[in-house]
Design goal:
About 75% of the residues lie in helices and about 0% in strands. It contains 21 helices and 6 strands.
Length: about 525
C-alpha cells in the first residue's frame, strides 16, 4: 500500500510540476494580460459600473439581480452565491496559509496579481458561458467550458474535432476534480479542524482501523449533502443564497476584530509582502530564479485554487442564471474574484502574518508551525478556545458550501457526457465519497487537487483565448449600447432561437422601463 501511494505521489508530482511550473503560470497570467488588453482594462475602466451592476444592485428593490422568471432558473444573485460557495472554501484559509508557509509573505503579492488578471479571465469565461449555453431536456440552462469549446472553438475551420475532444477532456477532468478539490479535500479539512477545536477530548475508538468519530462526522455531512443535492440547482441555489452571505460576513467581522487588535503590525505585514514578492533570501540563502519561481507559483496556484479564475468551473453555475445579457452575468465573475481574493484571502493573509508565527524579517514560519492549523492558532492566540472554535466553524461552512457547489459542477459535466441518468449515479457516488474524505490522509488529496486544477485550466484557457475575437465583439456591443447609446442589435447567443428570445425580453424590459 505504501509503495502504491509513493508511486502515485511521484507521478502526481511530475505532472504537477509540468502543469504549473512549465506552462500553467505562463498560460494563466498570459491569458489574463491578453484579455485585459483586448477588453480595454474592463475591470478597472468600468469598476463603478460592474460594482453597481453586481453587489450594488442587490440592495435595489427594482433590481432584476435577485429575481427569476421561472422555477427552472436561478437569480443572478443566487448564481453568484452558489459560485462563491464553491470558491470561498478552505483555499481562503488553509490555502493562504500554505502559500505563505511555502512561498513566504511575497506569495500574497502574486496572489493579488493573479486575481487582478483573474477578474477579467472569469468575466470572459462567464460571458462566453452565457453566450453558448443551451436548454437541457428539463428546460434548464446548461453551460460551461464544454459548450464554448465544442460550439465556439469547434466552429472554426478545421477545429470541429479539436473542440469536441477538448470539451470532453474538460468535462472528465471536472468530474475527477470534483471528487478531489470539491469533496475529499474539503471534508478532510472540516474533520481535521472539528477534531482539533471541538472534539479534542473525544475518543470513540476505531472500526476496521478507521476512527469512529471521523466516520460519524462524514456520515452526518453526507446526509445533509444528499438532502440539498436531491433538490437540484434550485435547492442548491436557495441554500447558497442564505448561507454564503452569512458565512462571509461573519468571517470578515471576526477578522476585522483581530485586525483592530493587531493594527500596530499592519505596516510590518504589508512591508513584508512587497519586500519578499521578488525574492526570499531565507528560503534559499540568497536570491535565485528558482526561489522567485517558487514564490510566484505558490501565489498564483493558491490564488487560482481559491478564486478558480481560469478554471472554467463556476461558469456551469453562472450559466443557470436568469439573465439575458452575457456581459451582465460576466460582471458578477469580476466581483466574485474581487470578494474571494482581494477581500477574504487578503484578510486571512493579515491574520497569518500578524500572528507572530511568521518571522516577518526573514519571511519564514517559526519552527514547528503547520500551514493546516495556522489560522486557527492565530485566532486562538488572541481569542483563546473561542478563536479556535470560530475558525473551525468558518472552515465547516466554507468547505461545506464548496462541496455543494462542486457537486453542481460535476453534475453539469456528467450531464454533458452522459445525460440525466449519469447525473443520478454521479450524485450517489459523490455523497458516498464524502465519508471517504472524512477518514483519509489530507496531503495527497490536496496535491492531486492542485494537479487537476491545472489540468482543467489548460483546455478551458485554450477555448477562452481562441474566442478572444468574440469576446471583443461582445464587450464592444455591450459598451456601445450601454454607454454610447448606439442603436445596435444586441449579441446575446450563438443560437438563433435563444438570440431572438433574448431580444424580445430586452425589448419588453425596455418597454416596461418607459412606462414605469
Amino acid at each position: 500500500m505504501e509503495k502504491a501511494i509513493s508511486i502515485i505521489e511521484s507521478v502526481n508530482s511530475t505532472i504537477n510540476e509540468f502543469v504549473w511550473v512549465k506552462i500553467g503560470i505562463v498560460l494563466l497570467i498570459g491569458a489574463g494580460i491578453l484579455l485585459t488588453s483586448v477588453t480595454g482594462f474592463f475591470q478597472l475602466r468600468y469598476i463603478g459600473h460592474w460594482f453597481k451592476s453586481t453587489i450594488g444592485s442587490v440592495f435595489k428593490k427594482s433590481s432584476d439581480s435577485t429575481k427569476k422568471s421561472n422555477k427552472k432558473t436561478v437569480s443572478q444573485f443566487q448564481a453568484l452565491c452558489t459560485a462563491l460557495g464553491a470558491t470561498i472554501g478552505t483555499g481562503n484559509i488553509a490555502g493562504v496559509s500554505a502559500a505563505i508557509v511555502f512561498g513566504g509573505p511575497g506569495a500574497v503579492f502574486w496572489m493579488w496579481v493573479a486575481a487582478f488578471f483573474g477578474m477579467i479571465t472569469k468575466f470572459c469565461e462567464i460571458t462566453l458561458g452565457i453566450y453558448f449555453r443551451k436548454k437541457n431536456e428539463k428546460g434548464e440552462w446548461s453551460g460551461g467550458a464544454m459548450y464554448y469549446l465544442k460550439d465556439g472553438l469547434g466552429s472554426y475551420k478545421g477545429c470541429k474535432a479539436l473542440g469536441s475532444i477538448l470539451a470532453a477532456v474538460f468535462a472528465i477532468l471536472t468530474v475527477v476534480a470534483s471528487f478531489g478539490i470539491g469533496n475529499m479535500g474539503q471534508i478532510n479539512k472540516i474533520t481535521l479542524n472539528l477534531n482539533e477545536a471541538v472534539f479534542s477530548d473525544v475518543d470513540l475508538g476505531s472500526i476496521f482501523g478507521l476512527p469512529v468519530l471521523n466516520l460519524i462526522i462524514g456520515a452526518v455531512l453526507a446526509a445533509i449533502s444528499a438532502v440539498i443535492l436531491l433538490g437540484g440547482i434550485q435547492r442548491i441555489a436557495s441554500f447558497a443564497e442564505k448561507v454564503v452571505p452569512f458565512m462571509a460576513i461573519t468571517y470578515i467581522v471576526g477578522v476585522v476584530a483581530l485586525l483592530i487588535i493587531n493594527f500596530d503590525k499592519a505596516g510590518a505585514v504589508f512591508a513584508s509582502i512587497f519586500r519578499f514578492a521578488f525574492n526570499n533570501e531565507a528560503l534559499a540563502g540568497g536570491i535565485s530564479g528558482a526561489v522567485i519561481a517558487q514564490i510566484i507559483t505558490q501565489g498564483c496556484k493558491r490564488g487560482m485554487f481559491s478564486n478558480e479564475a481560469g478554471l472554467g468551473s463556476s461558469v456551469m453555475v453562472h450559466s443557470s442564471a436568469d439573465v439575458t445579457e452575457p456581459v451582465k452575468q460576466g460582471m458578477w465573475g469580476i466581483f466574485e474574484v474581487f470578494a474571494d481574493t482581494f477581500v477574504v484571502c487578503t484578510m486571512t493573509a493579515f491574520v497569518v502574518l500578524s500572528s507572530g508565527f511568521i518571522d516577518l524579517e526573514r519571511g519564514v514560519p517559526l519552527e514547528g508551525v503547520s500551514d493546516a492549523t495556522l489560522v486557527s492558532q492565530a485566532f486562538g492566540t488572541v481569542f483563546g478556545d473561542f478563536g479556535r472554535i470560530f475558525v473551525a466553524i468558518a472552515i465547516l461552512l466554507f468547505a461545506f458550501t464548496t462541496v455543494i457547489g462542486w457537486a453542481q459542477y460535476g453534475s453539469k459535466a456528467i450531464e454533458y457526457l452522459s445525460g440525466a441518468l449519469g447525473v443520478k449515479i454521479y450524485l450517489i457516488a459523490f455523497v458516498a465519497v464524502i465519508i471517504v474524505g472524512s477518514v483519509m490522509e489530507s496531503t495527497l488529496a490536496w496535491d492531486i487537487s492542485d494537479t487537476f486544477n491545472g489540468l482543467m485550466m489548460i483546455p478551458n484557457l485554450i477555448g477562452v483565448i481562441s474566442l478572444t475575437p468574440l469576446v471583443i465583439k461582445l464587450v464592444k456591443n455591450y459598451t456601445d449600447r450601454t454607454f454610447k447609446k448606439k442603436p445596435v442589435a444586441p449579441l446575446l447567443s450563438f443560437n438563433r432561437e435563444i438570440q431572438a428570445e433574448g431580444e424580445r425580453a430586452l425589448s419588453e424590459n425596455a418597454g416596461n422601463d418607459r412606462h414605469s
